[in-house]
Write a structure and sequence with these properties.
heterodimer; A: 343 residues; alpha/beta; 2 domains; 8-stranded mixed sheet; 11 helices; globular; B: Elongation Factor Tu (Ef-tu), domain 3; 7-stranded mixed sheet; 6-stranded antiparallel sheet; 6 helices; 31% strand
Chain lengths: 343, 274
């Protein structure tokens, strides 16, 4: 399908219509950042940058009942499907990582898979970059080129629309009256904006010396015994904010409700920075020291994931940089790993 | 492989009997409502309602399909509750998970099984299977050790193993008491003078981390090849399906890629024995 155009007013109409079938989630501004809300009268922000919270929150929920009393039914599977509006390219890479974990192995997580299979992803180009953005270093452009149903690129008075799947094409066909073919001027505007934002991210990467992911191959393993881990962990307070805010962190805890009669099992986000994460009941712990656990976070994302799933589990969204109270900066840690390669 | 459409959901299971094996280990005989057909070395997750879940490798015969046994050492919150269970109680089971002992690859070879303490639990299941197929192996050796004679699991059963002519068995304790007739010393001290060829043989090791570390080093020293040493790793296996992240070692998840690993695959992993 050729690129289409939809006006801001018509887009709002289509989103309102989609609410009959989907729970439509949109980014809205709150203070310094964007947060997702169920579509209501608030002004929807399509462009700008990724939201403060990662989109995993809606598919791999922070707290979810995953089993009740020995029944093999899937609690919560009859919920309305989700329509995520204005998802940014970094978060789409987050989905690729989580899809591999929760849907790509012998075992499928029925909760995540159910939500993902039924969802509608309306993504959007970034129209600016935050200081912490470095997506281009980890193979993500600041505009989506795949893994969406419909993509929106903000231009004057509306959006250039790209269809990315049959599901997306179905929506555009269903509301065909609201779309028109995009004009050459609109496409030019889109392309110029993409180049501009791309240049912003490039400047971020240059200014912070962030290595391209290809240079990270083997780097963490080569630097395993380097002192850099102990130095970087000096300001870590073991809060796990980097884990919870990360769109690719997927570790969780299964926790049973304390009741003698009923069995209710929760799946809760967990954090590999917390001391007892890998500890067994007998007390043995392969990652006793905090710096070992910080190293583990990088080992997992930049060594385990490329080997096990052929993908670097970082989206360049910079959320962990913004969230860390100890000011641990993933860009600097990666840079040190590349610089230290020949030591 | 656990085939439930919801892999987090346990199967309702009746505790048929419990047996005190040692001061800190009890064996539970379990009958799940749906059959759990495991291969020796695979593990299950046992749920105590209201207390939580913990992983155990069944210690019973894999060929028995409707009932299975686990031997549990009391070390933490969940195992404390498991020890309080009695016949007739209801628990939950998920599994089987992971990959077990590749018994087919042992065929035609001389095979050494080294066990320590609570490691006898998975190994009893393996031994049942090896005895069932004992004519398929060139030679079968068992070397086991515990802290004291009263720490031996399945003591009467192992006594009968001594009478088998298809098994060369030697046992040792760190500290003996008056009745003890076996050797004294840690398990590595009874690995010298094995009546087998380490270079072409296969070894299986299961036990507490320290014992596994030193036994494995000893086996390598004796000439066993790293790719013929099989280790049962114990890590924090929680989900069992390679998703929750707790049991990662190197590029593997212990729950889905293990818990039985060939030593050459994991030997280089950091803090392997911790």
């Amino acid at each position: 399908m050729n690129p289409m155009f939809i006006s801001a007013t018509n887009l709002r109409f289509v989103l309102d219509e989609l609410q009959s079938r989907y729970s439509v989630l949109v980014p809205v501004r709150d203070g310094d950042g964007l947060f997702y809300e169920v579509l209501s009268s608030t002004r929807v922000v399509i462009g700008e940058v990724r939201a403060v919270e990662p989109l995993k929150s809606f598919f791999f929920r922070a707290k979810q009942i995953v089993a009740e009393n020995y029944s093999d039914s899937i609690p919560g599977s009859r919920n309305k499907p989700l329509c995520i509006v204005a998802a940014k390219a970094c978060d789409l890479k987050g989905f690729r990582v989580l899809d591999a974990v929760f849907m790509g192995d012998d075992y499928v997580d029925p909760f995540y898979a159910d939500a993902r299979k039924r969802n509608l992803i309306i993504s959007a180009d970034c129209t600016t970059a935050l200081d912490v953005c470095f997506c281009l270093a980890v193979d993500v452009k600041p505009f989506p080129d795949a893994n969406f149903d419909i993509n929106l690129s903000e231009v004057q008075d509306g959006y250039v629309v790209q269809v990315g799947s049959e599901k997306g094409s179905g929506v555009v066909e269903e509301y065909a009256d609201y779309f028109q073919e995009a004009g050459a001027g609109q496409l030019k505007q889109r392309d110029e904006q993409r180049s501009r934002v791309r240049e912003q991210v490039r400047a971020n990467i240059r200014n912070n010396g962030v290595p391209a992911q290809e240079r990270l191959a083997g780097a963490i393993v080569r630097n395993f015994d380097n002192l850099l881990w102990q130095e970087e962990a000096e300001t870590c307070v073991e809060c796990g904010a980097c884990n919870t805010i990360c769109p690719t962190c997927h570790c969780f805890l299964l926790s049973d409700q304390l009741s003698d009669r009923d069995l209710t099992r929760y799946r809760l986000w967990d954090s590999c920075l917390i001391k007892d994460f890998a500890q067994v009941a007998g007390g043995a712990n392969p990652r006793q020291r905090l710096w070992m656990r910080l190293r583990n976070r990088f080992d997992k994302k930049f060594a385990f994931f490329p080997e096990a799933y052929n993908i670097y589990a970082c989206t360049g969204c910079g959320r962990c940089i913004a969230a860390c109270p100890g000011k641990i900066d993933i860009r600097k840690v990666l840079k040190r790993n590349v610089e230290n390669v020949h030591e | 492989m656990y085939t439930s459409s919801n892999p987090y959901r346990p199967i309702r299971t009746e505790v048929l009997a419990t047996l005190e094996e040692t001061p800190s280990i009890r064996t539970l005989r379990l009958k799940p409502e749906e059959q759990i057909s495991f291969e020796t070395g695979q593990f299950v997750e046992l749920t105590v309602p209201g207390a939580g879940e913990a992983p155990f490798t069944p210690s019973s015969e894999p060929s028995v399909k409707d009932v299975l046994e686990v031997s549990v050492m009391r070390v933490g919150k969940v195992t404390e509750r498991i020890h309080a269970l009695r016949a007739g109680d209801t628990v939950g089971l998920r599994g089987p998970f992971g990959s077990g002992y590749p018994v087919d690859e042992f065929v035609g070879k001389e095979l050494l099984v080294v066990g320590g303490g609570c490691g006898f639990a998975p190994l009893r299941s393996l031994m049942y299977e090896l005895f069932r197929r004992s004519r398929e192996f060139k030679k079968l050796l068992f070397r086991g050790g515990c802290k004291t004679p009263k720490d031996f699991l399945y003591r009467e059963q192992i006594q009968k193993w001594r009478e088998r002519d298809d098994l060369d068995i030697e046992l040792t304790v760190d500290e003996a008491d008056g009745d003890w007739q076996g050797k004294i010393g840690v398990v590595t001290t009874i690995l010298d003078d094995l009546d087998m060829e380490p270079q072409t043989g296969v070894a299986v090791v299961c036990g507490p981390p320290v014992m596994m570390r030193f036994a494995t080093m000893k086996l390598v020293e004796l000439g066993f090849k790293k790719n013929t040493i099989y280790l049962s790793m114990e890590k924090n296996m929680s989900c069992g399906i390679g998703k929750c992240g707790h049991c990662r070692i190197g590029v593997y998840y212990t729950c889905s890629d293990g818990p039985v690993f060939r030593y050459d695959r994991i030997g280089e992993c950091a803090n392997l024995w911790d």
